Amino acid sequence: MYFHDKKKITNSNKWLKRHFCDKYVKLAYKKGLRSRAKFKLAELNNSDKIFQIGMNVIDLGSSPGSWSEYAVSKIGKQGKIVACDILPMLPIKNVLFIQGDIREKVIFDKLLHFVKLKPVNVVMSDMAPNMSGYSCIDIPKSIFLCNLALEVSRITLVQGGTLLLKLFQGEGFDTFLKKIYDLFSLVKIRKPYSSLTSSREVFIVAAKRK
Questions:
Q1: Which carries the bigger pLDDT value, residue 137 or residue 177?
Q2: Catalytic-residue membership of 74
Q3: CA triplet 61, 67, 68: central angle to 5 degrees?
Q4: What is the maximal distance between C-alpha atoms in the chain?
Q5: Which end of the chain has fewer CB atoms surrounding its CB within 10 Å, N or C?
Q6: Taking the model in full, what pTM does it have?
Q7: In the predicted structure, residue 171 carries a pLDDT above the cut 80
Q8: Are the CB atoms for 166 and 126 separated by under 8 Å?
């Protein structure tokens, strides 16, 4: 076995240990939630008031569905969510789920069909690459997915709309952040308490689409 393979396994084992010992993971399991991610979105919404009754939302990287599940409870029956992920997701009432790769035209066209029927107020993305444990590999992959979410926002969001996305800090972070400022008037960088302190992940809340 190569040295970098051993390091990858070691990093994965450390992550798993931290993950299952985390109090939010335990709390999510106790409450029967789909994942701990629901706590992160709740914190972000409490601080930035992202959702309102009647809003229409796109949820990228939605599986297993924690963000959609939380958001649908805030937008009510008047709102609608279209969620997309490569991985399967159990049904959620008032959430249209599209399984597939957003980079594929047929999947993207399904999202655009939703946009034609409903104005989109929020695009949220919890997309993340399969982590290798090497920042020189993981950070560019993360930024690529964030650029994808930004492009979806550019095409679909109404004026004044909001983009919420997860990004891992590292090389290229500042360059990507400038693109966010070019499209949105109000940009905040958040680190929820429910996010692992050892993780490079932060969340960008970009409001008031120009």
A1: 177
A2: no
A3: 90
A4: 55
A5: N
A6: 0.84
A7: yes
A8: yes
Q: Which residue do the tokens 């500042």 mark?
A: 174
What does the alpha-carbon distance between residue 154 and residue 79 come to, in Å, rounded to a whole number?
21
Tokens matching residue 160: 């004044």
Closest CA to 166 of 208, 131, 209: 131
d(Cα 91, Cα 69) in Å, to the nearest integer? 10
For residue 114, CA distances in Å to 32, 58, 59 come to 30, 9, 12
Q: Evaluate if residue 174 carries a pLDDT over 90.
A: yes
**Dihedral pair phi/psi, residue 47, rounded to 5°:** -85, -30
Retrieve residue 177's tokens: 């952040």
Residue pointed to by tokens 């996305």: 165
The CA distance from 32 to 60, in Å, is 22
Catalytic residue among 166, 179, 208, 210: 166
The two three-digit tokens of residue 119, written as one number: 């104005």
Q: How far is CA 10 from the centre of its chain?
A: 27
CB neighbours of 170 closer than 8 A, spacing ≥ 6? 135, 138, 139, 142, 200
